[in-house]
Write a structure and sequence with these properties.
This protein is α/β, with parallel strands linked by helices and 536 residues long. It has 19 helices and 14 strands. The protein has an eight-stranded mixed β-sheet, with helices on both faces. Strands 3-2-1-4-5-6 form a six-stranded mixed β-sheet, with helices on one face. The termini are far apart.
Length: 536
Amino acid sequence: MSDIAITITPDASGTITIGDTTVPVTRQSIEHARQAAMQQALTHARETAQTHPVTANDPTGTFYLTVTPDGGILTRPAPNTPAWEQESAPLGVPSADQAHRGDHHELPGAPENTAPGLEAARPAPATQPAPTDIRQPVPSPTVANEQPPPTAPLNEAANASPIEELEEALEATPGAGPMTDPVESDPRWTEIAQQPATQGYRGRLNGWGLKLAPLEDEISQRREALRQTIADEEHDRLAQEEKARTEAVQEGRRAAREREAAAKNKAERSAIQTNYGAPKTASAMNDKGGVGKTTDILCIADAFGRIRGGDVVTWDANETRGTMGFRAQKDHHDRNVVDFLDEAANAFTTVEGSKRSTLTRYTRQQGDSKFSVLASHESRESQDQVDADAFRTVHEILSRFYSLILVDTGNNHTADHFQAALASTDQLIIPVSPGQDGAYAAELMLDNFIGQGYGHLVKNAIVLLHDSATRHGDAREIAAKFENRVRTILPIPFDPLLDAGGEIDFDALQPATRAAYQTAAAAVAQGLAETDQKGS
């Protein structure tokens, strides 16, 4: 039987000496170095079929062990241990008094070179039977009757710990009995409690391959750690449940909004597709220029054309000249209303001459938007010839081929041309800009209309209140001016593309802008449907 000496240094290197042979041991960690050295010792015991004493040194102290041919690792008495001390405790296990004193007391009989504050393996009494294989399971301390430590009363809910939250949740559960230790019912506890010691004297011995069970203090620490883990898991579970409830509510609201939006879209499309009993005319009017009359007429016509599938025409009936031809999509020609009056209007005095193909030579088709544009003349002097009689002529011809005429008027409601448009109007549209001047001009115009006997148009009118990039605060005050005077007030959001003043590409507008003009078109259609019913 040869002695085996193992030395492991703090840098996880060391040596193992068996008899006269010394072999270096180098690993990534002290734990791995211990395991490698002990494996060599066990291999030597198996190959020699003999039991060998092992003296093991590592940064935690000196340990006296024995390796057996069948793979056992046993403790043995330290050299020169007095006999009376050998009888004070079982092999390899400190007495209860010594265990409670902690790691900072050396065992009697420990060699002088044992590191301060560390314990050495204890010898067995002289009359004690042969050492027992430490691989046999050591019973775990009985902890079933241990009660959880009392928690302090909660002064503030925000200061509650996860464990306190768990206890409160269990106590609040309907039908729950008295509070029980959650550790006892956790399936992980049995395995955790039976794991070998990792702390103190036993933990250091286990680092050399023994399987000593933990003492009560370590068991208590494991219990508290698992209790905290359970509390954290319960806290996370409750948080996930709350998140799931919140997401379910949000999803429900989102679904409700989508259903509401779908229902609104369906209702608006149905209104826009109304089949009228006679041609209808809707006119955008405001004495103030630059309030959005042309923009509104083109965008409302776009919504009508796409949903109705055509049968819609817009007319720039400005008594001087307008910008509809510039802001609409271009066609292969640039003819206008003055050209129509000069060149083709007389052809429509006979049945044979009343051909849609003749009219389309002067209107500009808007592609996928499926409506037509009759532009004004770019010369103010030429446009002046479109007086009241000319307006009525053009309007009558348009009514033969289109069921919906959308008219963009000028800025002088006293002009004959404007008055002819007012007399032909079935639905009044009042565009209002964010500034007070546009609202003021519209108010005076509506008062004049009422005085002229068009109170029914004012009462059924639609006000389109335009937003601005810089003057959001004016909207509420302006809307108050028209409440109880008109049928409805609809907001039109600010859109940079429309604000730029160039050609309007309806598909390029912001979704909110397109939706607002569809709503405006539906409101116009509802108003026209009501006038159609009254007319019949």
